[in-house]
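Handout, page 2. Input:
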Amino acid sequence: MARAIFEYTKTILEKVSFDKNIFKRELSKANRLLLPHERKELFIWFKAFTKSKPELMDLEFILA
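Output:
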């Protein structure tokens, strides 16, 4: 079940990446809801995802 939440979180983040404020809010939610090892995975995903979206890179502090 937890894995499904992680995958759902990534899907949501991809869909809202057009708006930095919504993306930030969803990233904060994910940081609260995910398990510690999933947060680490999300951080790795975030780094890869934001390479093509530099406007979102400064939100890294939420996951750190």
